Amino acid sequence: MPFFYRQGERGTWSPVTASDDDYLQAVYSDTALMTQLDSSGVPTSSSSEPGLMLTMLDALDAGPGDNVFELGTGTGYNAALLAHRLGADNVASVDVDPDLVRLARGRLAELASHPTLIAGDGADGYPPRAPYSRFIATAALRSVPAALMDQAADSAVIVAPIGLGVIRATVSGQGYAEGRFLPRPALFMPRRVPGKGPDFDRARDQAPETTALPVADVLERWRFPLSLALPGYSSCSWRSDDGEVTGVGLWTEDGSTVSAHTNGHVRQTGPRRLWNTVEALASLFPAGRPAREEFGITITPSNQRVWHGDPRGVSWNLPTG
Ligand SMILES: C[S@@+](CC[C@H](N)C(=O)[O-])C[C@H]1O[C@@H](n2cnc3c(N)ncnc32)[C@H](O)[C@@H]1O
Question: What would be the CATH architecture of the domain defined by 50-190?
Answer without folding.
Answer: 3-Layer(aba) Sandwich (3.40)
